[in-house]
Amino acid sequence: MSKKKQLANEEWDFSVLEKAPRTLIHRALQWELDRELGSGREPFLKTAECRRALASGKGQGSASGVVELGKASDKTIPFEESHNFRIDWSQPREELINQFGQWLDKQEKSGRLIRKPTLGKPRQPLTMLRKMSIVRLKANGYSLRSATANFTDKKRYVESLHKINWTTASREVANAMTRRRGTLKSLERTMGGKNWKTGVYRGV
Questions:
Q1: Maximum Cα–Cα distance across the chain
Q2: What is the pLDDT of residues 150-200, one digit of tens each?
Q3: Is residue 142 part of a domain?
Q4: Are residues 53 and 124 in the same domain?
Q5: Residue 60: pLDDT band with limits 50, 70, 90
Q6: Are 35 and 45 in contact (CB under 8 A)?
Q7: What is the rounded CA–CA span in Å between residue 156 and residue 144?
Q8: Distance between CA atoms of 147 and 35, rounded to whole angstroms?
Q9: What is the mean pLDDT of residues 35-52?
Q10: Could you tell me which of 120, 104, 111, 117 has the C-alpha nearest to residue 181?
Q11: Are residues 145 and 192 in the same domain?
Q12: Residue span of the structural domain in which 97 resides
């Protein structure tokens, strides 16, 4: 076993998100995956966005529409874009949903819209964050046994990692990073070659 390194809690202990809105958990997962790919950002749990969301108990909402009038100038946070839409409320609900679905299809082709599942099953984003916890613990010299012995104040969260195969967890996170890397390359092409680290995280 390699020598254990100091590992900050916010790098691997995502237990604070267990009762958080799914929208926040998905954002945390995407943020942390990008950190693995070199975004250079601080841990999501340390961000002002995360602290505000956990304090309010609300996730990040977003508007919807049908006819896009162009991008808006509103300030956004990572993974978000501000768009202006025109909605014809004389149309039935089914038609509005269909038209907005067509707009989303275009965003998927550009690389902006994430195809589900982002990581693992769509119903288990927190499980995938736990797998990332395992990857980071292993990278810093911890085994299941040593993590249990060293992080006694995180006993409940560490015990939740017992249910996961530590070998396959590494493989699944590696596969997810490969998929995300491909998506980021598509985004860079869409942004005219602009580096994804500044394009995705502008304003942060």
A1: 66
A2: 999 999 999 999 989 998 999 999 998 998 898 888 888 888 888 888 877
A3: yes
A4: yes
A5: very low
A6: no
A7: 13
A8: 22
A9: 92
A10: 111
A11: yes
A12: 67-110
